[in-house]
Design brief:
The complex is a heterodimer of chains A (157) and B (135). Chain A contains 3 helices and 7 strands, in the order αααβββββββ. In chain A, 32% of the residues lie in helices and 28% in strands. In chain A, a hairpin with a 5-residue loop joins strand 6 and strand 7. Chain A has a 5-stranded mixed beta barrel with strand order 1-2-3-7-6. Chain A is elongated. Chain A is an alpha+beta fold. Chain B contains 7 helices and no strands. The two termini of chain B are 60 Å apart. At the A-B interface, helix 2, strand 6 and strand 7 of A face helix 3 and helix 5 of B.
């Protein structure tokens, strides 16, 4: 068979696209595993540290109300790199927020955390309960989210 | 040998049915084919209609789950705080991937696919294959 005809042949094209499809499927699967692992780890740490974070550590190492993985009967894993919800309590440099899924999260702010309301930068002390926030951050080993950026949303009418 | 057999069969005249009988047979076959076509049309049109009706709640629930998901809240940050998002692109990409409601989207796309296939099946039965291609 001619080299030119080989590359133009249907068999070659079909084989090429099948290989491309397999490679894409593997990459997508790997990405899914990576994201899923992060969420599962954070959900586990959230559940494992629930009573320490929310009950002041009085109940030791008991699992959270949604089990060790932070999952309820009809609940998915908890998002690890951000949060969206309403502030229910502020304590020290920690924000306790409740998401639209009813799950509580602890968000810690540092000096490098940028907080914005509309176009202006505000201080951590300007935050108050019932503020709606969107947070981008990183999970830590205690089931909390270290906030890099907090956007305060306008209140619902 | 072959030639002899052929010659023998050439001379034999086959008996043909009477015209009235052959007309009745052809009419009976025509009725049978037409009945089968009508039944098929009813069946597939019903299937198509059922598919459209079944996909409506799937579209509704998947669409509402998609709209109510946190995904759009994080997406809005891209418009309001683009610079901040770019400086934390790794964490932003992670949260976007984590918050995408894949099952709702799957339900939505499956619902749309079922609706499209059902509409096509119904239209083919109603208008026929040729007219559908012209459309």
């Amino acid at each position: 068979m001619d080299k030119e005809n080989l590359f133009k042949s249907k068999v070659f094209k079909r084989t090429f696209w099948i290989l491309v499809g397999i490679i894409l499927a593997i990459l997508i699967f790997r990405m899914g595993m990576f994201v899923g692992y992060r969420r599962a780890s954070f959900s586990f740490e959230w559940g494992n540290n629930y009573f320490r974070n929310f009950a002041g550590g009085k109940m030791g190492d008991r699992d959270g109300p949604n089990g060790p993985l932070g999952m309820g009967e009809d609940r998915d894993f908890i998002d690890a790199h951000g949060a969206f919800g309403q502030i229910i309590k502020i304590e020290g440099n920690s924000i306790f927020s409740k998401g639209s899924d009813g799950v509580e999260r602890v968000i810690t702010a540092s000096t490098s955390t940028e907080i914005r309301r509309f176009k202006e930068m505000i201080k951590f002390s300007d935050l108050k309960s019932d503020d709606r926030i969107v947070v981008i951050g990183r999970p830590d080993s205690a089931g909390k989210i270290e906030a890099k950026f907090i956007r305060v949303l306008p209140p619902l009418k | 040998m072959d030639g002899e057999i052929r010659n023998t069969f050439k001379q034999i005249t086959s008996k043909k049915p009477e015209k009235a009988l052959s007309d009745r047979l052809i009419l009976h076959l025509g009725v049978f084919i037409e009945k089968r076509r009508i039944n098929r049309r009813i069946t597939f049109t019903s299937l198509g209609a059922f598919g459209i009706i079944a996909s409506a709640p799937a579209l509704y629930y998947s669409g509402s789950a998609l709209i109510q998901s946190e995904f759009f809240q994080y997406l809005s940050l891209l418009l309001s705080d683009g610079k901040m998002v770019l400086s934390n692109i790794g964490d932003y990409a992670q949260i976007m991937l984590e918050s995408v409601p894949f099952m709702s989207m799957l339900g939505l796309f499956v619902g749309i696919l079922v609706a499209i296939i059902s509409i096509r099946i119904s239209l083919i039965q109603i208008y026929g294959q040729r007219k559908l291609i012209q459309i």
